[in-house]
Design brief:
Oligomer: heterodimer
Order of helices and strands of chain B: EHEHEHEEEHE
Number of helices of chain A: 4
Shape of chain B: globular
Distance between the termini of chain B: 20 Å
Mean pLDDT of chain B: 94
Radius of gyration of chain B: 13 Å
Number of strands of chain B: 7
CATH topology of chain A: Aminopeptidase
Structural class of chain B: alpha/beta
Low-confidence stretches of chain B: none
Mean pLDDT of chain A: 93
Shape of chain A: globular
Distance between the termini of chain A: 23 Å
Low-confidence stretches of chain A: none
Largest sheet of chain A: 8 strands, mixed
Number of domains of chain A: 1
Helix content of chain B: 40-55%
Helix content of chain A: 25-40%
Strand order of the largest sheet of chain A: 1-2-3-4-5-6-8-7
CATH class of chain A: Alpha Beta
CATH topology of chain B: Rossmann fold
CATH architecture of chain B: 3-Layer(aba) Sandwich
Largest sheet of chain B: 5 strands, parallel
Structural class of chain A: alpha+beta
Amino acid sequence: MNRDRNYPSTVAGPFEAAPFAFDDREGREIELRPYNGGDDEFESLVSMYVAFDPADRAQGIPPGDEGRIRTWLDGLLEKESYNVVAWHGDTVAGHATLVPDDDTYELAIFVLQAYQESGIGTRLMRGLLGYGAENGVDRVWLSVERWNKAEIGLYEKLGFEISNSESFEMEMSARIATEE
Amino acid sequence: MKVLLGIGGGDDSRRALEQTVSRAAEAGDDLTVAVVDDPGAERPVDDIEAEIDEVLAAAGVDAEVRHVDGDAGSELVRIAESEGFDRVALGGGTTSPMGKIQLGATAQFVLLNSHVTVSLVR
């Protein structure tokens, strides 16, 4: 993935970094915390992905069976990625990650179906972007299916701009800090 | 079955080569390997060709290997349609750092334009 990618000239944010807590639109208390790398948190993440509706998969992730989910998660957590988890008690409601890609980061966000459309996705994005910026992440990109207007709208609201619309899936990028 | 296998310089081409050749060995496919122009290739064409010969020899498969100049996608479709192939096989994409599957420009072109059945090898 060494392709040159365009980034907006305007810096997005600032974003409030995780950890923080809030009540979602259903009145559930949601806590956003950076992933701590512990076995318990790993298993809770796996449970969320096992329960994930396959209809919400994008470009092959999350994978469909538990073995592949574990391999995929292990792989991305090992890569010095930045991860923020949305907790509802002991249940993982969502997970967002920034995975290193040369000197930029690829972003993805997953919200469990029962927790969608309750404002968690926006908060989780903000919490992750803030956490990433705190750790020196300055450029972020993601891919999204071009028919997914809701998600594209969310990313635009946060300061992402379309950087490539020539493939099946669309790429968007954001600058979240000024380059040193 | 008469199969046209398109090979570029990516890892997905390597997987496509291995799987398509081993299938040809089992099913007795009449296989043609087309080495396409791949501007993004990280390996020289000689390497790619040597690997093709090696994989074919190891599987005991006899196949024509030819070079295809010009735009990879449109040339593969043209050859497949004009020379009576039953199927085009090619690498089914690379993955992003996140693990998302991404289709290359050649695969996208072939998939949308070919009137011959297409196999994307994963």
